[in-house]
Every structure is written in C-alpha cells, then in structure tokens.
Specification:
The structure holds two protein chains of two kinds. Chain A has helices at residues 12-32, 36-39, 43-65, 72-107, 113-152. By secondary structure, chain A is mainly alpha-helical. In chain A, helix 3 (43-65) packs antiparallel against helix 4, helix 3 runs parallel beside helix 5 and helix 4 (72-107) packs antiparallel against helix 5. Chain B is mainly α. Chain B contains four helices and no strands. The chains are: A mainly alpha, B mainly alpha.
Chain lengths: 154, 101
C-alpha cells in the first residue's frame, strides 16, 4: 500500500489544531489591534475615532442583515443595536457641533473658557456613551458574522 | 503586529489552496476540506474589520502628527457611509417585518 509522502503532515488532527489557532487569532486579534481612539488626542479627534469605528461596524452589520443565511434573531439583534448606536452617534455629532461653535466663539474672544469647558464635558460624555453602544454593536456583529460563516460552510 | 496581520491576510488563500490542490484531493477528506474553508472564512470576516480599524487608526495618527483636527470633508465622508449603511439596515428591518402574502 502506497501513501503520499506528505500525508502524515496534513492529518485531520493537525488541521483541527490549525483551525482552533485560526479561530483564536480571529477572536483575539481585533482586541490586540490598537483602537483608533487610543491614537486620538484632541476631543475632535476622539469623536472622529469613535464615530469612525462605529461606521465600520455599522457597515459590517448592514452586510450581515442583507445576508439570507443570517438567522432572524441575529438580524433583529443587529438592527436594534445599530438603531441605538446610530441614535447616540447622532447626538455625538450634535455635541461636536456645539463644542466646535464654543471653541470658535472663544477664539473670537466673545465667551469665556468655562463655557467651552461645559461643551467639552458634554462632548466627552457623548463620546463615552457612543463607545458603550459601539461595544454592544461590535458584539452582535461579530456573533452574527461567525454564524453566517459557519452556515456558509455547512 | 503588522507581521501577524500580513500572515492573516494571506492565510485564507493559503488554506483554500491546500484544500483545492490536486494532490490534496487524494487524501483530504470532505470534513477536512470544510475545516480549511471555515478557517479561511473566519479569517476573512475578521480581517475586514481589522484592516479598516487599522486604516482609521493610521488616519488619526496622521492627524495627530500634522497637529490638525478632522476636516469637514472627512466628517462628511463618514456621515455618508453611516447613512448608507443605516438605510440598508432599516430597509431590511422593514422587509423582514412585512407579513408575507
């Protein structure tokens, strides 16, 4: 009986181990990649970082809900999380506009620094809220993504 | 980290090449073939988010280096992407809630 010389290398056990390592990489790597907000320094840069990350996962969520293989429960979860995050993102943009207006008025010498501080605190509050809602959206999107991929190969 | 990302970028094609290689078909069972394809699919889906997050981080790092805040053009681009994605999500919600005839 003849066997291919490389048969012993590609055993099912080896490939299962490879798959497990791959799954860990997929699960852990996004956590290892530096978050955009960690690179940001000014309040506007932080707002942009959070909003940008939200848009990335909102787009992934849109791709998933359009997938025919996504279970209805996961589709509803994405829609609800996206709706909540989208609303918060909208309020974040409003807070950003108020902050920008306050800093412009301060630069023109027509207001005081404490007025800008109020706008800054408000913006930071909505940045924190957006990060919380974004985390929820990321969770459901990643869960749905794994579900679609596993169904796609069955 | 960039080396890991580079490896994961080419990994899906590598895994699929193993599964589809003529020599592999002689000894790889269908189950193993599915495992390889699943691995490739998992990497690709996670890779999309990782790549875009990395690009966004780089964009912000460039802003910091240039000592500037995001421009209105950059904000408008993000808002447009969000509006388009949200429209799809809302449309799918309306479609799925419509009772079938």
């Amino acid at each position: 009986m003849r066997y291919p010389t490389h048969r012993s290398f590609f055993t099912p056990a080896f490939l299962v181990i490879l798959l497990i390592l791959t799954a860990f990489s997929v699960l852990l790597l996004p956590a290892c990649v530096s978050k955009p907000i960690t690179a940001a320094q000014t309040p506007e840069q932080k707002a942009y970082a959070v909003y940008g990350e939200f848009v990335i996962f909102e787009e992934l969520g849109a791709q998933l809900v359009a997938s025919h293989s996504l279970p209805a429960t996961l589709r509803i979860s994405i829609q609800e999380a996206a709706q909540t995050a989208h609303g918060t993102a909208g309020t974040l943009l409003t807070a950003l506009q108020q902050y920008q207006a306050a800093t412009q008025v301060l630069a023109a010498g027509l207001t005081t620094a404490d007025k800008v501080a109020v706008a800054t605190n408000n913006l930071n509050t909505w940045i924190a809220q957006a990060m919380s809602d974004l985390a929820a959206l990321e969770t459901v999107v990643k869960t749905a993504s794994n579900s679609v991929n596993s169904r796609g190969t069955s | 980290m960039s080396a890991v990302i580079s490896i994961l970028t080419v990994a899906p094609a590598f895994l699929r090449a193993i599964a589809s290689a003529p020599a592999a078909s002689s000894f790889l069972s269908p189950l193993v073939d599915e495992l390889l394809s699943l691995g490739a699919a998992l990497i690709e889906q996670g890779d999309i988010a990782v790549t875009q997050l990395q690009e966004l981080t780089t964009q912000i790092e460039n802003m910091v280096a240039a000592k500037r805040d995001p421009t209105e053009v950059e904000w408008a681009a993000l808002r447009a992407r969000s509006d388009a994605a949200y429209a799809i999500i809302q449309q799918q919600s309306a479609t799925s809630s419509t009772p079938s005839a």
